[in-house]
Amino acid sequence: MPAADDLHTIRDFVRYGVTRLTAAGVSFGHGTTTALDEAAFMVLESLHLPVDELDPWLDARLTIEERTRLAALFEERCTTRKPAAYLMGRTYIRGVPFRSDARAIVPRSFIGELLAGDLFGEEGIGLIAQPDRVQRVLDLCTGSGCLAILAAMVYPQAEVDAVDLSPDALALAAENVAEHGMEAHVHLHRGDLFAPLGTTRYDLIITNPPYVDAEAVAGLPAEYRHEPVMAFAGGPDGLDIVRRILAEAPKHLAAHGGIICEIGTGKEILEAEYPGLPFLWLDTEDSEGEVFWLSAADLG
Q1: What does the pLDDT look like over 117-138, one tens digit per residue?
Q2: Are 83 and 110 members of one domain?
Q3: Do 218 and 72 fall into the same domain?
Q4: β-pairing, 280-281 with 253-262?
Q5: For residue 83, what are the CA distances in angstroms to 41, 49, 78, 79?
Q6: For the whole model, what pTM was predicted?
């Protein structure tokens, strides 16, 4: 492969990757948002180097085997349009690694940033008054299990239930739970939202449900079409499952608990449809008005 012959350093391959990805017109949004970030991730992960430390390695020379593998990897990314996380078999949320393949949507969520920050910790803004008393956490639509695992890291004293309808997603989630040594704290359940949970109540419910509207699902870029469509499809306006969660959550929240939910671009629809709910919108580095918080008291 000519690129493997002409390129020699990590700097060369990151530059080549940016050029190749840009020329191919690939779409991002699976953990990276720019060609530079994606090229750097692919090079560093392929070489088993820390994915958040590019500068120390830029002038490192690569072996012919490494160069051949990287050139083929960029070619596969551009020709198949598979998400980089699927090609690498791994991705990261705030530095925490997760296995990733086509059994579940690529791990990504604005909620991951919120959990990995201090929003729910002792120094947070007080969404949960006493974080050390959180004993039960629920992750609905868990997919790869990433948010359930992050929640177990934030609340090591808590039992975390994680629910998904897809057996394939749960199989991947089980691998991630085992990789992080969380088997004693994260419990996987197959079922439709709250159905497999009985009457259990939770101090915190987190959920990143399918929320893409039908028109947008039909027009998803090629990268997103490699992911399970059930992880996206939220009905005509994208909010069918969110409505079900809002209807059922009060029966599963402890009196002092609350729910954090990612909904994409449906803020105006929700606020118009539920004028009595005081949605608290939690913005992140890359989102505004796409994640809400409601307490059990807010939900009545």
Answers
A1: 656 554 545 577 677 788 999 9
A2: no
A3: no
A4: unpaired
A5: 12, 20, 10, 11
A6: 0.92
